[in-house]
Amino acid sequence: MSSWGQLGFQDAGSYFMEEFIYFHDFTMMIILGVLSYVVVFLILGLTSGWVDSGFVEGQLIEFMWTIFPALILIQIAFPSLLLLYLIEDFSKSFLVCKVIGHQWYWSYEIKTESSELLASVDCYMLPREDAFGMRLLLTDEFLMLPINVPVRILVTSDDVIHSWTLPSLGIKGDAVPGRLNQLNLTLNRKAMFYGQCSEICGANHSFMPIMLMGVYSWEFFAWLDRL
């Protein structure tokens, strides 16, 4: 959950979000290096009247400023493509969670890979007086998923377009009527994660919070028995 004045990402709650943060930091280091290099030579060029003809015309320098940017782009492209392929890998999921957006609440159906329904729950936002200071974030029920278990998330809508978004997990799926969008999720720690609908879906768009709790497997099965 983000805090007031926070500039960076939220603490990662999934393995994919960890990789997103690593990739962001790696890319920012490259950007800062390139920016520092450009700024230094820009200042030198503006403040010094000395000009080296080797920098004005030369095969070697032209070769270098063509090859180095290409190598930098390759360094960024490979981990980026790897992350894209990992996000789309649904071959190892053990659970299926169907997320259905309504005006204006969320419904969840938890199934096995063989489409056996395990549980279903509807989550409505708590009124302001019951929210304990966490306005627009708490719901009367919440989704519970086991940690370290790959889960396939299917996102759809019953009426208009919504968007199921949890920033600390690095997932965002558009809920479109008549269409199923897939997400891949593996929680890495026990915690409560918060999100909100991030697609303007009507008058009460602001009142569609998301609560997801990562728990141990035995706690997850105990929760299923209570539903």
Question: Would you write up a description of this structure?
Answer:
By secondary structure, the protein is α+β, with helices and mostly antiparallel strands. It contains four helices and ten strands, in the order αααββββββββββα. The model has no long low-confidence stretch (mean pLDDT 88). The chain has two domains: 65 residues, no CATH class; 131 residues, Cupredoxins -  blue copper proteins (Immunoglobulin-like). The chain is elongated and about 80 Å long. α1 packs antiparallel against α3.
How do the strands line up in the largest sheet? 3-2-1-5-8
Strand content: 25-35%
- At the first level of CATH, what is the class of the largest domain? Mainly Beta
Instruction: Please give the CATH architecture of the largest domain.
Output: Sandwich
Radius of gyration: 24 Å
Anisotropy-based shape: elongated
- Mean pLDDT level: 88
Instruction: Give the low-confidence spans.
Output: none
Number of strands: 10
The structural domain count equals 2
Would you tell me which CATH topology of the largest domain applies?
A: Immunoglobulin-like
Please write the string of helix (H) and strand (E) elements. HHHEEEEEEEEEEH
What's the CATH H-level homologous superfamily of the largest domain? Cupredoxins -  blue copper proteins
Largest sheet: 5 strands, mixed
Distance between the termini: 27 Å
Number of helices: 4
Coarse structural class: alpha+beta
* Percent helix: 25-40%
